[in-house]
Fold:
Amino acid sequence: MIRKNLRLMAAAILAANIAITTAPLGALADPPPQRGSTPPTTTPIKHLVVIFQENVSFDHYFATYPVATNPGGESQFTARAGTPTVNGLPLGLAAPQNPNSDSTGNVYQPIRLDPSQNYTCDQNHDYTPEQEAFDSGLLDKYPEYTATACSAKTYPGVSGLGLGVVMGYYDGNTVTGLWNYAQYYALNDNHYGTNFGPSTPGAINVASGMTGNADPNLQVNTGGDVVNNTVIGDADPYFDDCHGSEYVGMSDANLNIGNLLSDAGISWGWFQGGFTPSSVTPNGTAVCATTTSRLDGAPETAYSAHHNPFEYYASTANIHHTPPTGLSEIGHGGPANHMYDLSWFAQAAMAGDLPAVSYLKANRAQDGHPANSSPLDEQKFIVDTVNLLESLPTWRQTAIIITWDDSDGWYDHQAGPVVNQSNSTADATAAVGSGLCGSGANALAGVQARCGYGPRIPFVVISPYAKSNFVDHTTIDQSSVVRFIEDNWNLPRIGNGSFDVIAGSIENMFNFTRPSAPGLQLNDLTGQVVSVTNP
Structure:
């Protein structure tokens, strides 16, 4: 009875937290879905949930893990005995360990941001400036190339930092929930954006590992967002009514993981906040103007088209944001074509019809993106989602991945290996001498403008089978998510230039012999532990 009450409470909190237009009234009256046989997997994981957030470098959230400052009045964090360290910043954080300078020679050091400074401005995280900030691996030009000074009017508490805000990091007194997940499950400190650049390349890479081969006939006002028919910027998806004035579509020859799952008859879905149209025009075009509120009460438009990777492909798009016919369609073929509003996820989970693979994208108020969200807003969404999933009967066969689409340009002291060269007009050369990405002769399938790996990004695995209080150092990237899905469900590689053919495996973060990680319920506002249950 206690576990049932927790499940109902978690679902209610998540539904309220999502605060998106609800599903059609008739949906909940559908008969229970007919559950067929479970698709065979190579591991005990039958359900994978990818919580895909926004704009965080590894150091921005885990620079001093597992040591928090713990000043009075802030959410406290004390590491468990035996907690391993990460490749983070030296605790002194003093010169000359991390010298970063701007164009006039001013030097900046990493600086701790506290919970009252949770709202910050967005940094410059475009493809070329990020390479310039790397400075051929010296990583000393962030204030010059990726910093954006925060104004006092919009971001009280951080305005005085100027360009130095780009060196800011949070510790376990702000991102308490994520630090607690790392305590009881597995964290990787060697995970990178597949390429340099902002949200769209990261989103496409976590779905396919392939940002190249954009269709030249499906590019409208893309400018510098598409170079050599490779997506390097935030042009919206062509196959989405809610795109803006700049949009692009991928070639029909390109596949994504959704195509492979559908071909194999394996259930899957992309669930995004605000996907349900706020209205529909007389000609049937969806309008996406739904707003939700941040913790501070500020309203934000819920849906962002360029955060949805599957809408760039005609084969997996839901152009008019058509709703599913009911719960029985979730994860399967139908009018929605596997693209759903986030509100459908909790309904399907509670009905016992969790898809084999689910990608979750929070509404913009809770996706963690600076300028429209914050670590505390993000924490509420993540904790509510994980609390719900851990209360379900399917939990013993579930794995959750929490990761992010790009670094936002935030400082990180660790450069990843260059595994794919590029020699496009967008690759930095003047500022870094011979250029970061070499001649481009060794580019995958010869496709340019995919310099990578890019900046380091956090990667957390939560599962009964996750290694507990474990830090993995395996080199992985965003397309490692694609590789895990392919390997776990016996799917072929996407190939054709996809990074999945060279992606590192995340399986060292698991112990598939037996479920040994405990169940964990956290407070969604403080991130502190509410309960721990034996596996």
In short: The chain has ten helices and 25 strands. The chain has one domain: 2-23+36-533. The longest strand covers residues 47-53.
